[in-house]
Amino acid sequence: MTFARPLLLAFIAALSTTDLPAATTATTQAGTDGAASALFPQQRDIEGFTLTIHAPQVRSWTEFEHFTSTIAFSLTPSGQTAMEYGTATVAGDTVVDMDKRTVTIRSPRVTDVTFAKPVPANYTAAVMDAATRESIDVRLDLFLAQLADEVLPQTAPAGFNTSPPPILVRSTPTALLFVNGAPVPSAVPNTGLEVIVNANWPLYRDATGSGMYYLLSGDCWLTSGKLDQGWKAATTLPRGFASLPSGEEYATVRKAVPLKNCTRALPQVVFADRPTELIVTKGKPALETIPGTSGLEWVKNTESPLFKLESNWYLLVAGRWFTTTNLDQGAWAYSKDLPKAFSAIPEDHARSAVRASVPGTVEAKMAALEASVPRKIRISKGSPPAVDVTYAGDPKFETIPGTQVARAVNNGFDVFLYQNRFYLCYAAGWYVGDSPIGPWAATADVPAAIYEIPPDSPSFAVTDVKVTGSSADDIEYSSTDAYAAGVFLAFGVAYYGTGWYYPPYIHGPFYYPYWGSYGHGSWYNPTTGRYGSRSVWYGPYGGYSFTQGYNPRTGRYGYVETGWDGDEWASFGETYNPRTGIGTQTERYYDQDKNRLDTERTVERGDEWVQSERSTDFDDRTTTVERETSQGGSSEVQRSREGGTVSSERTVTSGDGNTYTMSGEQSLGRGSSTITGADGSITTDTVRNDGRSATAIEGSGGGKALSVSGEGPGRTTVGQSGSGDTYAGYNGNIYKKTDNGWQRYDNGQWKPAESSPYVPRDRPSPPTVAPAVPAASTPVAPATQARTNDRGSAQRESIESRERAQLERDYAARQRGDRQFQQRSSRGGGFRSRGR
């Protein structure tokens, strides 16, 4: 594409598509995809022709590096309007970008070009030339959806723990006070107070006075002389609270001082010294039958994923299912095999997210497949890590049972001792040193003994970080979600953590915890693709939560605190990553009486910063977003809806003083937008019909693009003709999906596939690729479907049946892949990290 490049780059950098009317979303999606070519169908102009390529129908993805696919295309000679349809096989090596959620096909190889009817020889050459002259970007979610049916379930790695954690059920507002091991007090300077650093809630002790504990519950205080009993509302606070330091770590507590007159009912406090799950219902469990599931019921008055089928209760925690026949007695047991009723939960049900943890569902297969996609980094050989390794006292190492490897226990890093050498795993790379504090140097020589560390060791995740390449200059490392997020695969679903509880290491005031599987209400959210973890709330319709985490592998720290009641809620969160130096602060407030949501967000790195403020008035149906940067850039967006028309106005000023204006409008099935700046302009025109849409994009530099969307993502159209979504079938047959069913292109016309005779094409089969062999770092891999060229009349009915079944799978995969991509790109995930 030949857009006015400076304008386009500024446009992409400045825009957030959520601020634009729906008519322009498809146009600007390039800004969020990271590559405009990830949109399909796409047009490529070559000498004498225009080629339209549809999304690849992926057939195999061996080791997540080499793929084969079939594609449908149309070729239009210059000066003509008639399209010549065809199919081709596309293969090549792939590179995955997990942040942009794209798969780049480098130097694609195009073979087996087959047209639906005879064409001149130069047509085939034109297709091959246009398709191979540049790389192709495809949405990762499309790959996952296309291959989900071929995922082979794997058993859990040997040594995983499936014993249930303690599971408590309460029917009144309850707070779970979890102190990880023996209380670790840390003196608060000049106050006479101690903060218990290994508690999941703000917990203080009057160290020089009464010795009483004080627990912050929202903006109210509870007090008790013992952690495990006697909690009641505090009537006074020690004077030391008035002298709390000004640091950010005490900001939440300072807001609750002096003591307020707490009028609301305070929660019951349940104490636990090991990871415990808490289910809170509002009164007795309220059951409601889920349609189409043969009697499966869900508990609708709790936030917990709790179900009942016949006499059994089922709870989902950290990807695992536990069952009991009596909620009050708490005799829970691990359940590997679920009743088929769970697979029948409708995708639009309030608890449909649990389908990602139900073996056999497409959501579970996609989650397992994504967790297996490797992330690869390259580090200069011999270079040091961006971290200083320190210890609480002298370095202390303990042998990992069953191995010859010892691990450091009194610091927050993965440091190992093996045969008088020290090894550090940090940020998905390996380093070696002659001393426990370094100096460290990136290495490709990692002892095999390290990969024998069992799951009951808190360092098990490092076995996922492997050396996959080495040259004279640098080293390539590969890892998956097992290392980055503690997500492991078992029985075809994603599990969070190994199931083991790792007691923390405590040395005086130093506390080194390990992120565990339980005690945080962890569950996989297929909308975000992440495990969300939070300290247990009290009361499903009002209360307070506090979530925090630190991952030494990336250095990222973050927390979010949220309070809510019947008509308003507020939250505040911070993150900081010392490796990148980037910190964020986000504050949100919603008032139901005013029906208004306000959000403020700041992103900082050193002296550089970006600030944004967003206000949404749901009654007036208006949204205003203002942004400002430390470099002098700014933008202001106003979006409004009146009747059936949505309008937006935007002004962007770059740091060098250039100003760009954007305007857009959508009404009655048609939308347009114009972006104008000093370097030219970009115009779009969108036509909508029966829930489908096509957007033509044109830049003042002459570049053109075709972007599509539909009432269900993946329901695409070609151009503005509404001629349907085109697919490649077996042996070169061309199909499109319409509201009236499948049609096949035959002798220059589209005919209903059911009435049109099956026509096998004289086309060789795509190359057969050996099935992907699961590697240790990729425990789930898609099987390869080998296509055959069966042409005998006795097999024709079987071939046609298989072809139509595959078309339905490809169609469903496009819809699901595009929908998931849009969800993942537009929504944040729950806080997900593991480590200490």
End-to-end Cα distance, whole Å, is 47 Å
**Total count of helical runs of at least 4 residues:** 8
Q: Work out the strand percent.
A: 35-45%
Q: Report the biggest beta sheet as strand number plus sense, adding barrel if it closes.
A: 14 strands, antiparallel
Number of strands: 56
Shape: globular
Q: Give the helix level as a range of percent.
A: 10-25%
Overall pLDDT: 76
Helix and strand composition category? mainly beta
Please tell me how large the radius of gyration is.
29 Å
Q: Which residue ranges are poorly predicted, with pLDDT under 50 across at least 5 consecutive positions?
A: 1-37, 533-545, 700-705, 708-724, 763-779, 781-795, 826-836
Instruction: Give the strand order of the largest sheet, numbering strands 1, 2, ... along the chain.
Output: 39-40-41-42-43-44-45-46-47-48-49-50-51-52
Describe the protein's architecture and organization.
This protein is mostly beta strands and 836 residues long. The chain is 11% helix and 40% strand. It has 8 helices and 56 strands. The strands form 12 sheets. A 14-stranded antiparallel beta sheet has the order 39-40-41-42-43-44-45-46-47-48-49-50-51-52, covered by helices on one side. Strands 1, 2, 3, 4, 5, 6 and 7 form a 7-stranded antiparallel beta sheet that branches. Strands 10-11-12-13-14-15 form a 6-stranded antiparallel beta sheet, with no helix packed on it. A hairpin with a 4-residue loop joins strand 45 (622-629) and strand 46 (634-642). The longest helix has 31 residues, at 796-826. It is globular.
